[in-house]
Amino acid sequence: MTAVCNESISDWPTAGFPGVRMNPDTLLPVVVDEDVLEAALADSVDPADRIMALLLEGQAKEAAELLAEARYKDPESFRLRIFEAEVHRATNRFDRATQLLRHLISEVQGTHREAIVHQYLGRAYFVSGNAVAAAESFTKALDLRVAFAADASLIYSSAVALQRARNVLELAS
What we know:
Layout: E1 20-22, E2 29-31, H1 34-43, H2 47-56, H3 60-73, H4 78-90, H5 94-108, H6 113-128, H7 131-147, H8 152-172
Helix pairs in contact: 2-3, 2-4, 3-4, 4-5, 4-6, 5-6, 6-7, 7-8
C-alpha cells in the first residue's frame, strides 16, 4: 500500500477506518498512515475490513473474491452489501453499484443506515461523473446525519463531499 503524504491531510475527512481518510478532491478513500491501517487490520476479524484494504490497494479482483466468500457466510451483512457496491464502483460498473445502493436505501429507509448508503451512492455518482446526482445524494446523507445527530466526523465528511460536488457543478456551468 502506498500512503499519501501531504501536510493538509489533517483537514481531510476520516474515511471510517484507522489510517484512512477521504481525499476531498476525488472523494475516494486513501491510506494516509500505513502503519495505523496495518495495525487495525491485524486486530480485525471483520472480512469487510480486509475487503476495504484490498480496494485501497487497487486489488479489486481479490476484493471481489473475498467478498463472495464473506457474503456466502453472511449474506445479510450490511457492511458487506455496501462493499459489494464498492467493488462494482472500483471496477467502473457504476450502473450496478448505484442499482445495489438504491435497493439498499429502500431497505434501510428511515434508519441511521440510510445516510451511510446515500454517502456511498453519492460517491459512486461522483466518480462516474454525475455530479448532479452526487450532490443530491450527499445532500440527503448530510440532512440525515444531522437529523440523527451523527458523529461530527460523519457530518463533516458529508459536508465536504457535498461542497466538492457543488464545486464541480459550478465549474461545469
